[in-house]
Structures are given as structure tokens and as C-alpha cells.
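Budget justification note: compute hours in this period were largely spent on complex prediction jobs such as the one shown. Inputs:
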Amino acid sequence: MDQGSTRTGGSLENLLEETSRGNHAAFRALYDAVSPKLFGIVLRITRNRSMAEEVLQETFVKVWQKAEKFSPEAGQPMAWLAAIARNRAIDRIRAEKVERSQPMDDVSALERLAAPDTGDPATREALRKCLGQLDDEARNCVILAYCSGFSREELAERFGRPVGTIKTLLFRSVRLLKACLESE
Amino acid sequence: MSEELDNAAAEYVLGTLPADERARFAERLRSDGALRAEVSRLQARLSPLDNLAAPTTPRPEVWANIERLTLRGAADVPGEPAASNVIALRRRVNMWRGSTFIAGALAAGLAAIVVLDRTAVAPVVEGGRYVAVVDSDGHEPALIAEVDTVAGIIRVRSLKAETPQGKSLELWHVAEGHEPRSLGILKAGLDAQTIQDATGPVDGLIAVSVEPEGGSPSGAPTGPIVYTGRLIPVE
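Corresponding output:
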């Protein structure tokens, strides 16, 4: 689906604007348009269905209350919504000890980033290229942290490294990514 | 930006900060615009990764809960208080309580302007006067509310508060530890209005919510909270 529009005809931007005015029908249309994607994101991080449902609820209550804070100049509406959902999901798994199912590996992320249905082509291609410049371990750490909510400790265990080394690897990788993306 | 902060921003966006560091970073984000911009930029750059998660349709109960939490109290839904808005306002009271004196100083500066302005047209009444500069999270003030506890009135001056079509803006007082209390509807198109209120709110927040035309049917805020401001005493 195109990032900017929905099956209900309104763009996500318009739906957010209408939501900020208290238009509940627009809010419902926004939910219909983006909830499967947001639920997919939080489910993958929380690895716990009931927690993912709570996070999705909290995300949309927050969107209802804060829709006026979205500004089109700040970026894509979908990225703004996903950031709210992801942050809430991460807050929950970091703050609460909850049973989570086995994490999903995503070694094929780089290939899947090349698929044509994943967002703005220029941003996607730049990220694919820059992730491709990281070594395998650094790339996998970034992807497992961002996509699957891996903690420093989980990454340390997965890659058989001390936690401190993982921390340094994460900073360095993000710094390299930023430098690469800025030059794109 | 310091290297330490830069690293924390990277780990905040990746999600690997431990809970306590994450909470501290989030607190800092609220008051640091440059840091917020940096985090948003990085989030936007990594956002194509969001698309790798398989879309999954949530159960219908999820929307039913969201609807209950956001529409509660609207005309067609029998009304309990709008819990989510009440919680949000309470949180904001707490946040303001511990927050910057810069905002307070700014409000005090504006309060001084209000007082100076008023002395030109009306004698200053000795006694308890409090003012709230009510805005949308630090943006240009939307209205100024002055509480005169001696006269038992609240004067509200609208600077840029706009009433959406078919809706009403409702003014609330939120004291710490109390439910929001309606102070009345802001009449659309009026630059200034006086509200009789013998209780004289002296602390906490003044907030404005978007409500169905005529005001909240439940007695609690039901729509989005669009403006808030902390009450401070006028020296």
C-alpha cells in the first residue's frame, strides 16, 4: 500500500489532521489503515500477544490525544506513528519482565529491504546500501535490536560477546550508518 | 552534541537502553528540542525497517477498547468519565509540578504583561490573583486565564484559540490529585470572557479540550486536550 494514502481515500496526513480536530470517524479510518502494520511492529518486539494488544491500544489513545503534534514537515505520517508504537513497545519490554516467545532472526532483512513494497524508495535504498556496508555482526545487531527488541544482554548472548563490546558496536554502527546516510 | 548524548540517542532509537537510562533519556527529550530533532531524524532514517514486520490484523476487541477509551462520554455512548484524558491531564500536572522554572519565568513574564496591560484599563484588585498562559506544549499562547479569587471570577482572553466547526472548546481546572473540573465553554469568536467561579483555582493546570457542541456530556474531558497551562501566582 502506498505510504501516503489509504483505502478510505483520505491521506494519512489528512486523517491525522482530522483526528486532531476530534473527528472520531477519521480516527477510525486511520486505525483501519495503519493498525495491521503497527500491530506487526509491536508484536515482533513484545513477542507477547496480549502485551502487543495493550501497546497498540495505548498507541492509539496517545494518537487521539496528540494527533495535533504531528507536523508534515517532520516526516512521513507512517514513520511518526510507527515511532510512537515502537517506543511504547520498547518501554514496556524494558520496564517489565514478561514472558516473551523466541525471537525471530532476521538475517534476510537486507534482501527484504530491496522489496518494492517497503516505503519511500529513496530512503529504503539508502538504508539498504548503508546497512550493507556494515559487517555482518554489526548489521545483525542493529536489525535485531531495532526490529525484534533485543536488549544489550540478549545481543551479547547471541553473539558470544561481552555486553560492553555490544554497546560499543551499536554506537559505532549507528555512527557509520548516519555518516553513510548523510552522504547519500 | 556530546559523544555520550549521541551514543544514548543511538541506543534510544535502537531500543537497547536499559529501563532506567531509557526513562532518563526520555525525560531529557521532553525539554531538549535539538535532541528531539536528532532522534526524529534517526528514527526516520531507520523507518524502512518498520516495513519488514509482517502486518497482522489485531482482534476486534482492540478497537472496541480504543473506542471506549477515546469516545467515552460522547453523546451516543453512555458516559463514564473519559479515563484516558483524565489520566493524561493528571500526568501533565505531575510533569509541570516538577518541571522547569524557565516555563514559570516565561509565564511570569507574560503575567507581568497582563498586569501592566490591565492597570491601564482597570484598578488592580489586592488579593489572590493567578494566571495561566495556556498553550499547546510550548507553542504560541492560545489564551490567558486570570483567576481573581477575591472577585470569584476567571477572565479568559483568547489569543489564538480556534473552535473547530461543530465542536466546543471547554475549559478545565485540574488540581493535583483531583478530577478535572469544568469551568465552562469558551464562546467561539469572543476575544475575552469572564467566568464566574467562586472556588478560585490557585494551582495545577488550566486545560482546554475539544468537546461535542455544547460541552462534555459526561462532566469529564472526552475529546483531545488541545491546550494546557500551569497556574502561577501574580506577584
